[in-house]
Design goal:
Length: 130
């Protein structure tokens, strides 16, 4: 306890001289320091994982935007195909309905909503009651 040089000598070599009186306090201090170091390592890992998660999230959002764009294109293609099917003079629905009205044997019929949406007056005349 009285030799300061011994204490400095030990401290400079990273050795701590402990007496029985302060042993428990020193062990508790060491335990707390190890806990903080452990938490700091976890904080770094959490930050790294958070960065990776954010990057994945951005990629997922980009994929959803691409899906939305393709859904819009699909809808436009569907509407264009449906126009070819049911609008304009001599459209496919009116041609098929005319064939049926002329006596073609068919087990099924086109839906009324499709026939009503058809833009061909000659087909409507064939389906409307006189």
């Amino acid at each position: 306890q009285t030799d300061n040089e011994l204490w400095n000598y030990a401290y400079n070599r990273r050795v701590l001289i402990i007496s029985p009186t302060n042993l428990i306090a020193a062990l508790k201090l060491i335990y707390d320091l190890w806990q903080r170091e452990h938490q700091n390592k976890h904080a770094i890992e959490i930050a790294e994982r958070g960065g990776r998660l954010y990057d994945k999230f951005v990629g997922f959002v980009d994929s959803l935007k691409t899906i939305g764009h393709h859904l819009d294109l699909s809808k436009e293609s569907y509407e264009a195909a449906f126009k070819q099917l049911s609008t304009g003079s001599g459209n496919l629905v009116s041609q098929a309905q005319k064939i049926k009205m002329l006596g073609a044997k068919a087990k099924k019929s086109l839906s009324d909503s499709l026939l009503e949406s058809t833009e061909d007056e000659s087909t409507r005349a064939l389906t409307e009651p006189e």
